[in-house]
């Protein structure tokens, strides 16, 4: 799901799976606070975008406008 600005709505994706921020962070190998920042609009690094794309089964470039 995308937000009005065209970015992926990471919170929506996470919650649709029933996962906590910590669970996603653990799967991606990043901190829970970083997940929180991404959910608030921070753009992920390319490496993190690749990891999250694998977890949510989406294209990695969807995290970028």
Walk me through the structure.
By secondary structure, this protein is mostly helical. The chain has a single domain, classed as 434 Repressor (Amino-terminal Domain) (Orthogonal Bundle), CATH 1.10.260.40. The chain has helices spanning 10-17, 21-28, 32-39, 46-56. Helix 2 (21-28) packs across helix 3 (32-39). The longest helix is centred in the last third of the chain and has 11 residues, at 46-56. The model has no long low-confidence stretch (mean pLDDT 91).
Under CATH, the topology can be stated as 434 Repressor (Amino-terminal Domain)
Largest sheet: none
For this structure, what is the CATH class? Mainly Alpha
Listing every helix as H and every strand as E from the N terminus to the C terminus, the arrangement reads HHHH
Strand content: under 5%
Number of domains as seen in the coordinates: 1
CATH evolutionary superfamily? lambda repressor-like DNA-binding domains
Helical content (DSSP H or I, runs of 4+): 40-55%
CATH architecture: Orthogonal Bundle
The average pLDDT is: 91
Helix and strand composition category: mainly alpha
**Strand element count:** 0
Radius of gyration, in angstroms, nearest whole number: 10 Å
Which key features would you list for this structure?
mainly alpha; 65 residues; 4 helices; 434 Repressor (Amino-terminal Domain)
Per-chain topology:
Elements: H1 10-17, H2 21-28, H3 32-39, H4 46-56
Helix pairs in contact: 2-3
Give a quick rundown of the structure.
This protein is mainly alpha-helical and 65 residues long.
